[in-house]
Amino acid sequence: MAESVARLFEEFGDSHQFLNGMTAEQKQQLVTMSSVRTLTNRQVIATLDAPADGIYFIVRGSIRLENIGENGDRFLSGDLLAGDVFGFLSVIDGNPPDHFASSHGRSTTIFVPAGQFRNFIYSDIGLTRAMLEIVCRRLRMSLITLNRFAPGSLTARVVRCLLTYVDQRGFRSEKPGRTQIAVNQYDIAAMLSVSRQSVHRVLKDLEASGILVIGYNAIDITDLQKLRALH
User: Fold this and answer.
1) What is the per-residue pLDDT for 182?
2) How far is CA 195 from the centre of its chain?
3) How many of the other CB atoms lie within 10 Å of CB of 160?
């Protein structure tokens, strides 16, 4: 199992660069306390009534975050994609997470139990500092995410939503001059609590303006500078 974990850590994209500052010995310690967890579609890994059981390093697939609206319905908060990590805040402070979390599609993760991870990061000041930097980055991104609910036209809100995905590294640049984000019209509508048809009209207008191209479960941003100017 340890060999499989080590191989997956090599594949892990590590958008937070958490592993970069570790010594070879610390990386081996992390491998030893970790296990591989393959999640089925919609498999729940965290709820609002209990602390997270551990840290999930997302190697393939994604983790969907949802919350409860004022009317009691769930709404989509966002997705954590490959290279990201779920569970930091809840594991550190021992409180329940702020979101329901479940696998969006089949996902491969590296799992570290909560207690072992806490002991690990507090064993070295460098690891503790790295965790604090990640927490600060998460807080800043949370504040940015709140902007999508700020007053404004639906176009401005959709644009802010798209930029949230871009700025959270939820993208891949496989085509020259393009930024592709893994989000679709239904996801955006769920995050903004509006109809899918309304989002579709906005996206089609943006597509007609040459700012983006609507794909299957993805959107290609062809003019990021022009998109930023609209929010």
Assistant:
1) 77
2) 23
3) 20
